[in-house]
Amino acid sequence: MKKSVAIVGLGRFGKTLKRLLEKYFDLIIINRNNPEDISNADVVFYCVPISAFESVVKNHREYFKENHLLIDVLSVKMHPKKVFEKHLKGLRTQALLTHPMFGPDSSKNGFGGLQLIMDKFKTNKDNYDFWKDFFTKKGLNVIEMSAQEHDRQAANSQGVTHFIGRLLEKFGLKPTEIDSLGSKKLQEVMGQTCNDTWELFNDLQNFNPYTKAMRLKLGRTYDLLYNQLLPKRTNKKKIIIGIQGGKGSFNEEAILFYVKKNIIKKFQIKYLYTSEKVLKNLHEGNIDFGLFAIQNVVGGVVEESTYAMAKYKFKIVEEFQISISHCLMKRKDVDRKNIKVVMAHSQNFRQCKNSLEKKYSNLKQISGRGDLLDTAKCAEALAKNTIDKSTAILGPKILAEIYNLEIIEENLQDNQNNLTTFFLVSR
Q1: Do 140 and 238 reside in the same domain of the chain?
Q2: CB under 8 Å to 344, separation ≥6 — which residues?
Q3: Cα separation of 285 and 427, whole Å?
Q4: Is pLDDT above 70 for 1?
Q5: Which residues is 14 bridged to in the sheet?
């Protein structure tokens, strides 16, 4: 007499399992509306999403019988083991853990030579031997392995493969006319893994306790390999330093202070204007070191630097402070009474808040966007007529000399010991 076998879940793999079993067993297909039908089966295969497995087993518990054998086919093994232990407690129902290492695509030409993992778990010898023998006779390569060992190995095998496949999909890998065999294999990996549902990929990554470590290792390895490809020095003859500001900025003042203190003679400054651009250029290998402001005693944290630091990895080479002072300046061909706007980095306004309220409350305060976040860039724009000439600039005194501006007032900072902290960073 044929065994009666129920399949719970007739998705892509459920249909694959049906092909494997249908000639040899009386099959019952279980859906959500007839869970009681499992009472009529000797064996129940669970082909449900990993994330849904526990709720399904919990709902079926009242229909389990003493002679039932429950078999999961999930791609993770420690999770179903815990679920069975929890919901079969007090019952004499048996449970077998399996992982068919194949799917609809890899088994379309038959099952011969494909792998299947088995963990005896809560199965008696007769049932275990029966199913091991059945799978072997169907040409499957049965590998006996504990649930924990399976998940450990799977994280660094199936987990990596699926992650790389999805990564290639997000990258947008496309065939070309000159694809090598290796390129074609990558296309196959992407096609095979991305043919499965996102739910399966997500569950594979989150229900295997070892995959998180795998992903972290992949990330560290990527960073290591990426950085190894970048030159140790951008220019062999001199050090290239990218700074948050433009020519005449406080950042330039800070880097000149640093190189003088450390007796660095062969260097070149790249004016990058924003913290974002500094760290981006550092990451891409366009500069050797980066410099940006992170905090002021009055103005507090430099927000643009905070947001930029959240996006990139870097090493802090040195943290140091300089005292800075602010001047208000204008074009020489504009009368003071016609000045209506003062433009600067938001930090400058914070550091001069009380002075500006007391002396220049009539001036509208604005900060630019993009490169115009930088006060030195604003001064350059004013000199070149790319911003309204009735604009005043609040920043370093040297900007007046560089861009032929007239100083209206000096030392507008609220704290005369106006210390700003800078980071010098490397990859």
Answers
A1: no
A2: 365, 367, 375, 378, 393, 394, 395
A3: 8
A4: no
A5: none
Identify the three-state secondary structure at position 422.
strand
Q: Of the candidates 114, 146, 178, which is a domain's last residue?
A: 146
Give the model confidence (pLDDT) of 156-197 as tens digits. Answer: 999 999 999 999 999 999 999 999 999 999 999 999 899 888
Residue 272 and residue 247: Cα distance in Å, rounded?
10
* pLDDT (0 to 100) of residue 67: 84
Backbone angles phi, psi at 415, to 5 degrees: -110, 120
Q: State the pLDDT at residue 108.
A: 83
**pLDDT confidence tier of residue 33, bands split at 50, 70 and 90:** confident
Instruction: Write out the two tokens for 174.
Output: 């496309």
Query: Tokens 């799978």 — which residue?
Result: 135
How far is CA 411 from each of CA 76, 132, 249, rounded to the nearest angstrom? 66, 85, 16
Task: Give me the helix-helix angle, 211-229 and 198-206, nearest 10°.
Answer: 100
Alpha-carbon distance 207 to 197, whole Å? 15
Asked whether residue 153 is domain-assigned, the answer is no
Task: Check residue 248 and give left, alpha or beta (phi > 0: left; psi -120 to 50: alpha).
Answer: left
In a domain, 137, yes or no: yes
Distance CA 242, CA 255 (A): 9
In a domain, 152, yes or no: no
pLDDT digit string, tens, across residues 92-146: 999 999 999 988 878 888 899 999 999 999 999 999 999 999 999 999 999 999 9
Per the listing, tokens 């059945």 go with 134
For 193, the domain range is 158-229
State whether 399 and 426 are in the same domain: yes
